[in-house]
Amino acid sequence: MTIAVICDVLGKENNGTTIAAMNLIRSLREKGYDVRVVCSDPERAGQKDFYVVPILNLGPLNAYVAKNGVALANPDRNILTAALNGVDHVHVMMPFALGSAAARLAHELGLPLTAGFHCQAENFTGHIFMKDFPPANRIAYHVFYRNLYRYCDCIHYPSQFICDTFEAIVGPTPHRIISNGVNHIFQPKPAEKPKELKDRFVVLFTGRYSPEKSHKVLIEAVARSRYKDEIQLIFAGDGPLRQSLARQAKRRGVHDPIMRFYSREELVKVINYADLYVHPAEIEIEAIACLEAIACGKVPLIADSPRSATRHFALTDHNLFHYNDPQDLADKMDWWLEHPEERLSCSKSYLGYAAQFNFTSCMDQMEKMILDVSEGRHES
Fold first, then answer.
1. pTM for the complete prediction?
2. Can you tell me the distance from the alpha carbon of 243 to that of 161, in angstroms, rounded to the nearest whole number?
């Protein structure tokens, strides 16, 4: 069976969309499927089964897009036609220009089509400074539906939250709810803090340095904490707000946050020696980063934002704080730091909870969705 995976965004594995795409591609190939990948990553040119289209030219916006560390694909009809020639199934990752063109072509050719839902409306409207304007978000979802999802035999939603959000606007859709899954490498392992951190509380957050991730709320919370002078923040990731976050921490007298991108192996070690994992993001479809911390037995403290699926990972009220409320976060953070026995007990509860996000099981479910659609068995 030959499957085409269409990726509007594919580059270095430093963002959730690329990681989800590459996880699916590798999993399908390991299962014995021939997988063709259509993307705009010039580094993939010449690689077997990669079909590379041009990068979308946005004129004066090119610098802004590059600053955000992404390159959008510009659909090329000839390349898409070659990629889809002879395939048995098409799976689209994003509702942008390349994915939409591929969906229309698959529809014309009568090919079975599935698509992942990896972009919240706010991820798009945030770039035009309208993420807090509900009509703009509703319009974005209608555009996503018209350009891509109306053609789909089945939609992959990574969480019930994003399924409910989208269907409340566009109506019922054929779908499966499947987590993107947590790689087996994320598990509890002995890990000592580096010498320079041994006498500090290590508070970790993994997420792209962008406004919707709300790093600034966590910095402000540390500034208000009773343990301000003993806390070491680690921001695992990268993104356009790096300098802004560093300036805020300095201005608020917060010890210099460690800000860097970690390999998966490095991140497992950091998670395991951290004292607490905080996820302050206001907008999230699933937040695999939080699940990775949970899978390592780390206690999470999560924003209760109504626009985030991550709040549903909270097992107790102590695992939630009021989103965009640094004082509540500071109070909850201090409570966890003062109660190590409760942290240990909660950690054990989370280890059992994390089993449902097993990567192998999630990839098996993705395979089953593709096979069922290809064989004409649709579910909703």
1. 0.92
2. 32
